Amino acid sequence: MSDHLTIVDHPLVQHKLTLMRDKTRSTAEFRQLLREISQLLAYEVTRSLALGTKTIETPMQAMQAPVLEGKKL
Hints:
Elements: H1 11-21, H2 27-45, E1 51-57, E2 62-68
Antiparallel strand pairs: 1-2
């Protein structure tokens, strides 16, 4: 399989795709489902972003917190 192909078989994505494919779906509903699927896919697309840490002050104490490395989104 190609390194550039990701198959997303998450149950929520599959369910929303089924709803989208229904020929009785209105254009507005189709667009809403497309937005929802796009948000779900964003998690998959950004899964391999590099993380670093930085020190922050919380109400309790200082901690090392995860932050995106390199160019930010």
